[in-house]
């Protein structure tokens, strides 16, 4: 393929080889990240590369139309976007819905069809952002359409961006000013505001920030800024600096790939760190055609395989994720290397077929000879109908399953009430914590699998000290106040504490900050899992505000496996334990007894979402177990609590696990729901075993307890 030379920097080429190569690298990073996340842990940056490319190309297209006509034909623009993106997206959604109903257990259907409906309406990113705030939902296994979140962000950009540029053009005309400077000022304002918000929100709530359109808008705007500036670049020395541009292009690609290998899931993203892949992408596009340099990467970038992957990138992105999620259900085991390679090959085969038979024929349909101008009503009608059918079908599936869920929940509620009252010695936790000889110790009741088992989060209702917020349960006017303190692994005990509150007339306050260890601030700790301002403020408030709230007893817990995942040394684990003790001591010194609940083992990674695993299991006895040595590690809360005056330790690890495995079903009840969170039913079955310790703590002075 021959390339045009400066001064245009290749901007007038119909298809920039660099852009297609960027698309190839981006989709490659994403697919490899999803297939082999341990090897390319930062492959998610490929999505951000796509965002920059979209901002660049769409803005260039819109500016050319503004220059030529003084306006933007919005119906035509949106119809072109619909024809380009919707057909393949709908085909994949329909195929995925059919595969979900055929391959997965009913326990997985509801949350999947909700996301399919959200994906069809291009609002999935906001649903995931909302769920990310609630870590009880955030730790659910990914659905086969979760990757549509980025398509939702792009569609929202396509909806808003032409209106913004058209508004800036109108403003420029009214001020009698040149068009491009006004466009550039407006885009710079959007970029600056979005980047500042992204940095702030990522530090406050990184999981929610990742899915927000507002935190990624600056990436589109970055591409737009380049589109508005590239013509000026062609008139500067930059156009003649072919060797420099070649080196910049190589450096840009290298930076993107390095991000793929060095960033991880723990990296606060997008935030400021996203400047690296975004700037690298802009550098590659700005370098443009470098074919005249011996250093040029153009021979590689313009190679047919690279360009073909770039051409197929959209369809490949759509098709790659559903089989990664669904095939383990069909096979009954995690994907082996041969199956992963088969997914890789089949992804591009499906992408080619999708582009050849779905995308291309519908992208530029034949115009009727007699039509004076094209009409876009059929395009909008097709979009509305396909979206409505997907949403309606998803809603119907959800309603059918919900009816079965309600029936199962009624049965489960009756058993849970008896178990919480201590009347059923073999229900849930009682099967291993009581002295009863239970035949169903590690077996499950199929009728209970569909029962609502995920603990839900409420909105904060009470604020103390102007900062520390609490969820409130039970009798607000009760004399006895029980506090549950920690991250989501403390919050999942709320059903047990609420059951106790109803029996004993307590007021319950949940002081929870998801993904934030409830210990003293450890500013310099290399294994601190959350250094965000909100987490550190929460930790300070636990020490400064909570002692004056009027709490009678504190129950606290936290997720523990993160320390093993981060490779904490013995010295670092002792540092964490000391941080726990420092916080607990402030409560004990204030006369508040402390009950520490050691973290639950949690399921192994290959078990996935436990309720779905159990629902699919062929055997009812001890399904979906996890090797004990894989899921039970060092919990710093345990040594921190042992022997500390005023602190009671409840460690039920040996109840969850025998000598070899840890169980996902105990006493007929699924133990976990939402990743490693214990289910609502199992939490309620713990009430008879938590209650006596709370009552004992309330009835004796803190210094007397060990």
Helix content: 55-70%
| Mean pLDDT across all amino acids | 85
- Shape descriptor reads globular
Number of distinct beta strands: 11
Largest sheet: 7 strands, mixed
The strand line-up of the biggest sheet is 1-2-4-3-5-6-8
Spatial gap, N to C terminus: 77 Å
Low-confidence stretches: 1-14, 701-706
Q: What is Rg?
A: 28 Å
Decide which structural class fits the backbone. Answer: alpha/beta
User: Count the helices. How many?
Assistant: 29
Task: Tell me what portion of residues adopts beta-strand conformation.
Answer: 5-15%
Layout: helices, strands, pairs:
Elements (H helix, E strand, L loop, with lengths): L16 H19 L9 H25 L4 H30 L5 H12 L3 H10 L1 H4 L10 H26 L4 H26 L1 H6 L1 H21 L8 H21 L12 H13 L10 H4 L2 H8 L1 H19 L5 H27 L13 H44 L9 H4 L28 E3 L3 E7 L5 E7 L1 H4 L2 H11 L1 E7 L20 H12 L8 E5 L3 H5 L4 H20 L4 E4 L12 H7 L9 E2 H4 L5 H5 L5 E4 L2 H4 L4 E2 L2 E2 L2 E2 L9 H6 L1 H12 L8
Parallel strand pairs: 3-4, 3-5, 5-6, 6-8
Antiparallel strand pairs: 1-2, 2-4, 7-9, 10-11
Any descriptors?
706 residues; disordered N terminus; two-stranded antiparallel ribbon; globular; disordered C terminus; 7-stranded mixed beta sheet; alpha/beta
Describe the structure.
By secondary structure, this protein is an alpha/beta fold. 58% of the residues lie in helices and 6% in strands. The protein is built from 29 helices and 11 strands. The termini are far apart.
């Amino acid at each position: 393929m021959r390339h045009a030379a400066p001064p245009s920097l290749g901007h007038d080429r119909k298809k920039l080889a660099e852009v297609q190569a960027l698309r190839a690298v981006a989709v490659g990073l994403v697919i490899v990240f999803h297939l082999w996340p341990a090897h390319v842990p930062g492959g998610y940056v490929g999505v951000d590369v796509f965002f920059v490319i979209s901002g660049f190309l769409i803005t260039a297209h819109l500016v050319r139309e503004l220059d030529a006509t003084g306006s933007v034909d919005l119906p035509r623009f949106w119809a072109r976007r619909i024809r380009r993106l919707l057909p393949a997206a709908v085909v994949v959604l329909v195929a995925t819905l059919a595969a979900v109903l055929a391959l997965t257990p009913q326990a997985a259907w509801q949350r999947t069809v909700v996301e399919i409906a959200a994906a069809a309406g291009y609002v999935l990113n906001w649903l995931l952002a909302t769920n990310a705030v609630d870590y009880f939902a955030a730790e659910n296994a990914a659905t086969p359409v979760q990757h549509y979140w980025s398509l939702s962000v792009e569609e929202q950009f396509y909806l808003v961006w032409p209106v913004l540029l058209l508004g800036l053009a109108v403003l420029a005309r009214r001020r009698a000013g040149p068009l491009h400077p006004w466009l550039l000022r407006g885009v710079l304002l959007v970029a600056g505001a979005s980047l500042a918000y992204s940095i702030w929100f990522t530090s406050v709530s990184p999981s929610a920030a990742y899915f927000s359109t507002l935190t990624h808008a600056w990436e589109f705007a970055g591409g737009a800024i380049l589109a508005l500036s590239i013509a000026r670049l062609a008139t500067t020395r930059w156009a003649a600096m072919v060797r420099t541009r070649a080196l910049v292009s190589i450096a840009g690609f290298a930076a993107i790939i390095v991000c793929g290998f060095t960033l991880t899931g723990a990296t606060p993203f997008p935030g400021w760190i996203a400047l690296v892949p975004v700037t690298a992408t802009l550098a590659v596009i700005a370098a443009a055609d470098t074919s005249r340099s011996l250093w040029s990467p153009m021979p590689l970038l313009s190679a047919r395989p690279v360009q073909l992957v770039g051409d197929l990138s959209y369809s490949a992105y759509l098709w790659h994720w559903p089989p990664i999620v669904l095939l383990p259900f069909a096979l009954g085991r995690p994907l082996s290397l041969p199956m992963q390679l088969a997914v890789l090959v089949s992804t591009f085969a499906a992408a080619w077929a999708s582009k050849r038979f779905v995308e291309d024929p519908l992208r530029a349909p034949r115009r009727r000879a007699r039509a004076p101008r094209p009409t876009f009503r059929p395009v909008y009608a097709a979009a509305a109908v396909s979206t409505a059918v997907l949403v309606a079908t998803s809603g119907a599936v959800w309603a059918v399953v919900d009816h079965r869920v309600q029936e199962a929940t009624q049965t489960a509620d009756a058993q849970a009430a008896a178990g919480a009252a201590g009347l059923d010695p073999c229900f849930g936790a009682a099967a291993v914590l009581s002295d009863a000889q239970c035949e169903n110790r590690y077996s499950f009741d199929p009728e209970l699998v569909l029962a609502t088992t995920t603990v839900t989060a409420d909105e904060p209702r009470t604020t103390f000290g102007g900062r520390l917020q609490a969820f409130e349960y039970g009798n607000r006017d009760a004399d006895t106040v029980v506090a549950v303190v920690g991250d989501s692994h403390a919050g999942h005990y709320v059903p047990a504490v609420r059951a106790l509150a109803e029996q004993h007339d307590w007021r319950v306050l949940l002081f929870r900050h998801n993904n934030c260890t409830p210990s003293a601030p450890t500013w310099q700790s290399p294994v601190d899992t959350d250094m965000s301002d909100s987490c550190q403020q929460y930790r300070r408030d636990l020490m400064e505000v909570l002692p004056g709230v009027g709490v009678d007893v504190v129950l606290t817990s936290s997720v523990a496996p993160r320390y093993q995942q981060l490779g904490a040394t013995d010295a670092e684990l002792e540092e964490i334990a000391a941080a726990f003790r420092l916080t607990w001591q402030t409560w004990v010194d204030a006369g508040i007894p402390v009950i520490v609940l050691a973290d639950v083992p949690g399921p192994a990674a290959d078990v996935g979402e436990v309720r779905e695993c159990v629902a699919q299991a062929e055997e009812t006895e001890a399904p979906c177990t996890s090797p004990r040595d894989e899921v039970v590690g060092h919990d710093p809360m345990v040594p921190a609590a042992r022997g500390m005056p005023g602190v009671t330790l409840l460690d039920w690890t040996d109840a969850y696990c025998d000598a070899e495995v840890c169980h996902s079903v105990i006493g007929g009840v699924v133990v976990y729901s939402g990743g490693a969170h214990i289910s609502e039913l199992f939490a309620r079955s713990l009430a008879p075993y938590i209650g006596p310790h709370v009552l004992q703590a309330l009835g004796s002075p803190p210094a007397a307890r060990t």
